[in-house]
Design a protein that fits this description.
With 596 residues, this protein is an alpha/beta fold. Helix content is 38%, strand content 20%. The protein starts with a strand and ends with a helix. The structure holds adenosine-5'-diphosphate and magnesium ion.
Length: 596
């Protein structure tokens, strides 16, 4: 199955050179239970990682099923890692808040199998490790031995030919270690299991072969001259397409990704299609936890975890888009053309993937003090369908500043509506874009996080419901969109601008300058939506079209002030690039209260 020829591994960083492996010759058969023993630092993990394709050897050759990996390209390694190898780590690497079943299923998410197939195979793998009756348990309700068995099930669910385990019993007591060893021995009946361990007694009792390492060299091998010398059949690795190459296609080397710039790119990408999950899967199978943790942290702060009333599970869609579905492996003859099922797959992915969330109960749960959610989140923001209606009344005519009227003023929305785009998915996309374009946005509740993300340029942070701050971008700019919205630029310019654009003429926005004092002088009025209705006798009439009535109402409406000007701090990744005006959550609460 596997042959290692004079494998060496040198880690070098500047002056430092560590020769972790100094020429390893080993070969493994199709089904063995090999234990690798040796003191800490002798190169066991390095060897295992090289065998699993997680790390590259420096010189020598690794032959997999008779094929030299010298010519392996990234795609071949991806395929090998995803379909031929399963990993088990000392620390389990399970997702704590997911059930055992979900943890195992996750490992199949990217392998292009249907939802039902995923479920079936995950259950089967858990049954194999004796956890058939614990499917719904979460890791924190399980013992160490059970958690490790879930991890083994996860490694097995892809039906790999090789199972690699790095000190799988390192964190277990002797009794549970025995259970895990028995499972590994069972597994090794029809596949190759290579296990690193500190424990010579366990190795003696269970392994069929013992390899001792010392200082990067093999010092003894109980099967040195036995039947395992067969070089493996020349097989193919053309198992189904794997989607790890999807990420590889981004053409970003891991090293690149580790820089801040790289992480920002990946973060943007991840946030844009909810790929945190995919990153998580990569981390589970490859053990690059620290790195993923960082990506996750960045991603979560720039693209918070959003829970909407209805959501779409993107995995099936991605599978459909990338044509990954193994589908029915029908025989196809040369010389004929057959029907693919891309469209039907996509449609059913969309339909099946839609989930409705019960937001009312969810919020009630979040609001309960005993939830203890504060430990796990840095802030919670709510978004409401009820618009927060704000006006400026210090000009000739009252100007509605939120929701913004600037985009409407251009006339572009009419075009969009005329083109019939306001239906279905497009409308949703448009709404999402428009929402992101709001000039007024709620500030994070978490004062500490807020302080760390922004520098106060003038004034101070808002303290009460009627106080807001202006947020600039890192170049001290407020976007033209914000300026038009707030009436700091005249919206009357907009229709002409759009006309010029339609004629293919260049447009530009005149550069203006403001002092901090000017901007701090901005005042708004909060119009509670129900206030536009007037009761005459028993009849309520909508007076929002009546300018005089509106003006009178706004005169007596609560005043909202700008009390500070902020700019993202130098190191912050989490801030929105758009800038605008930040208000406190209390403002929305106040409005909702009034409306109620
Ligand atoms: P073991 O698993 O047997 O404890 P390892 O394979 O982890 O040992 O490490 C073997 C040697 O290689 C050690 O000297 C270790 O410090 C070194 N080493 C491992 N990984 C790296 C790395 N990424 N960079 C530099 N040196 C490393
Ligand atoms: Mg190790």
């Amino acid at each position: 199955m596997l042959v290692l020829k004079n494998i060496t591994k040198v880690y070098s960083e500047g002056e430092n050179r560590v020769e972790a492996l100094k020429g390893i010759d080993l070969s493994f058969g199709d089904s063995e239970f090999a234990a690798i023993l040796g003191p800490s630092g002798c190169g066991k993990t390095t060897l295992l990682n090289i065998i699993g394709g997680l790390d590259q050897y420096t010189t020598g050759d690794l032959i997999i099923r008779g094929k030299s990996t010298k010519e392996f390209r990234e795609h071949d390694w991806d395929t090998y890692r995803n379909h031929s190898v399963g990993f088990v780590f000392q620390s389990y690497n399970l997702i704590p808040h997911q059930t055992a079943l979900a943890n195992v299923e996750l490992a199949l998410t990217l392998s292009g199998v249907s939802r039902e197939e995923r479920r079936r195979r995950a259950v089967e793998a858990l049954e194999k490790v004796g956890l058939g009756d614990q499917l719904k348990k979460k890791p924190n309700q399980m013992s160490g031995g059970q958690m490790q068995r879930v991890a083994i099930a996860r490694a097995l669910v892809n039906d790999p030919e090789v199972l690699l385990a790095d000190e799988p019993t390192g964190a277990l007591d002797s009794e549970t270690s025995v259970q895990v060893m028995e499972i590994l021995r069972e597994i090794s009946r029809d596949r190759l299991v290579i296990m690193v361990t500190h424990n010579p007694e366990l190795a003696d009792a269970y392994a069929t072969r013992i390899i001792r390492l010392l200082d990067g060299r093999v010092t003894s091998d109980s099967a040195a001259s036995s039947e395992t010398q067969e070089e493996g059949k020349a097989g193919n690795l053309e198992t189904p397409k794997t989607s790890m190459s999807f990420l590889t296609a981004l053409n970003l080397s891991l090293n690149n990704l580790l820089t801040k710039k790289g992480r920002t790119i990946l973060t943007a990408f991840a946030g844009s299609i909810g790929i945190i999950g995919i990153a998580l899967i990569l981390s589970l199978s490859n053990g690059v936890n620290l790195y993923i943790e960082r990506v996750e942290r960045d991603t979560l702060s720039s693209y918070p975890l959003e829970i909407r009333e209805s959501t779409v599970d993107m995995t099936d869609t991605l599978t459909g888009l990338m044509d990954l579905s193994e589908g029915e492996k029908k025989t196809r003859e040369e010389g004929k053309v057959y029907t693919g099922s891309r469209m039907t797959n996509l449609l059913s992915a969309w339909m099946n993937g839609i989930t409705e969330n019960d937001m009312t109960s969810f919020k009630a749960w979040l609001d309960k003090p005993e939830t203890g959610i504060e430990q796990y989140v840095s802030g919670i923001q709510y978004e409401y369908d009820t618009p927060l209606t704000l006006y400026r009344i210090d000009q000739e005519k009252p100007l509605q500043v939120n929701p913004s009227t600037a985009m409407e003023a251009t006339g572009v929305m009419d075009m969009v509506n005329m083109a019939g785009m306001s239906s279905g998915i497009q409308s949703t996309m448009l709404n999402t874009t428009m929402r992101r374009l709001n000039v007024f946005t709620p500030l994070l509740d978490n004062e500490q996080l807020l302080q760390s993300q922004y520098t106060v340029l003038a004034g101070r942070m808002p303290q009460s419901m009627d106080e807001t701050v202006i947020i600039l971008n890192s170049r001290n700019e407020l976007s033209d969109y914000a300026l038009y919205t707030l009436g700091l630029k005249d919206q009357a310019e907009l229709p002409g601008m759009y006309q010029r654009l339609m004629r293919g003429e260049p447009i530009r926005s005149e550069e203006l300058e403001f002092t901090y004092e000017e901007l701090m002088g901005l005042r708004f009025r909060l119009l509670v939506n129900t206030d536009v209705f007037e009761k005459k006798g028993s009849l309520w009439t909508d007076r929002s079209g009546d300018a005089e009535y509106l003006k009178a109402k706004l005169e007596e409406a609560p005043e909202i002030r700008v009390v500070g000007i902020l700019r993202p701090s130098a190191g912050a990744i989490a801030t929105s690039a758009a800038g605008g005006i930040g208000y406190r959550r209390e403002l929305m609460d106040f409005m909702l209260e009034k409306v109620n």
